[in-house]
Amino acid sequence: MNTAAVQYTQLIKHKALALGFDFCGIARAEFLEDEAPRLETWLKNGMHGQMNYMANHFDKRLDPRLLVDDAKSVVTLLLNYYPEQQLPEDDDAYKLSKYAYGTDYHFVIKDKLKDLLAFIQTEIGEVGGRAFVDSAPVMDKAWAKRAGLGWVGKHTNLINREIGSYFFIGELILDLDLEPDGPIADYCGTCTRCIDACPTDAIVAPYVVDGSKCISYFTIELKEALPDDVRGKFNNWVFGCDICQDVCPWNRFARPHQTPEFTPHPDLTTFSRKDWEEITDEVFREVFRRSAVKRTKLEGLKRNVRFVGESPEL
C-alpha cells in the first residue's frame, strides 16, 4: 500500500467535507470500458435529441487522461441540494426542478472545487489538475459510481444510500496517485416506481433514459416549439422535472441541504400560477438573476408556461 497515497487521500477527503461537500470518493483515472458501448448505442439511437454536444468529444468522455495530462485519479464530490421547503405549496401552481431553486450550481461547486484544488497544491506540492462541473465531457455519474458514492438507478440518476439522489456531482481530475474506493452494489431491486411514474415514458427500459422524451429536455434543452404529442403530460413542470426522483423510495433519506446559496429567492416562494403566466423581463432578471433557469431565457420559460397551461384539447 502506498503510504503517501493513503495520507493524501485522507487529507483531501477531510478538506472536502470542511468545504461543505457531503461525500468524496476516489477512482483511478482510466478508460471507462463498460460505459463506451452504452454511450455509443445511446447516441446512435438518437436519445440525446438536439443535445448535439453529447456527441462531441466521444474519446474524452471515456478517458480522463485526454483531459488532464498524466491523470492518475478522479476525485468525485457530492453536494446535497434537497430543499427544506418544497415549491410551490399550491398544487395547482407551476413547478421547477429543485436543483434550480437557488444559485446556479455551476458557480457554487466550481468555487468549492477551486478551493479544494488550491488546498491540494498548497499542502501536497506540484499537483496538476482540473475542476469539472457538468460543463465538460466528463461522465460524472460513472465516476461517482466507480468511487463508491452510490449506484446508477433505473432512472439513470446516481443514488446514495444515505441521502438519496438530490445532489450535484463535481470532479477534480489529478495527476496524483490516491487510494481508490471501490464501487458498491445496486440496491434498486425489483422496484420500478420511476419507470411507472414517468408521464412521457422517457425511461424506455431499466437504466435507459431516452433523453429526447424527458420533460427536462423539453423544458430546458429543446429550443423549438414543443411537440403536440406531449401536451398535457408535463404535470405543471415548466423547468426540469423531479418526478422520477420524487417517487424513488431512497429519497425518504433525503435531508435539507446546508448550502445558503441554494436557498430560493424570497419572491419565488410565493409565486402563484398567475405570477408565472404574467412574468416580466424585470421580474425574470431579479428572481432568476443567478439561477440555472436563465438557461431557458425569458422567452423559453414563457413558452413552457403557455404550453403547460393549455389543455390537451387545445
From TrEMBL:
Pathway the protein acts in: tRNA modification; tRNA-queuosine biosynthesis
Gene responsible for this protein: queG
Keyword annotations of the record: 4Fe-4S, Cobalamin, Cobalt, Cytoplasm, Iron, Iron-sulfur, Metal-binding, Oxidoreductase, Queuosine biosynthesis, tRNA processing
Membrane-crossing segments per the record: none
Residues annotated to bind tRNA: 223
Protein family per UniProt: Belongs to the QueG family.
HAMAP family assigned to the protein according to its UniProt record, in alphabetical order: QueG
Descriptive protein name: Epoxyqueuosine reductase
Entry's EC annotation: 1.17.99.6
Any single GO BP term: tRNA queuosine(34) biosynthetic process
Keyword tRNA processing annotated: yes
Origin organism lineage: Bacteria, Pseudomonadati, Bacteroidota, Cytophagia, Cytophagales
Assembly, per entry: Monomer.
A GO MF label: metal ion binding
Catalysis: reaction(s): epoxyqueuosine(34) in tRNA + AH2 = queuosine(34) in tRNA + A + H2O
Enzyme class: oxidoreductase
Residue ranges annotated for the 4Fe-4S ferredoxin-type domain, each copy included: 176-208
Residues reported in the UniProt entry to bind cob(II)alamin: 61, 134, 158, 169, 216, 241-242
Highest taxon of source: Bacteria
Gene Ontology, cellular component aspect: cytoplasm
Protein function: Catalyzes the conversion of epoxyqueuosine (oQ) to queuosine (Q), which is a hypermodified base found in the wobble positions of tRNA(Asp), tRNA(Asn), tRNA(His) and tRNA(Tyr).
PANTHER family associated with the record: EPOXYQUEUOSINE REDUCTASE
Organism name: Fibrisoma limi BUZ 3
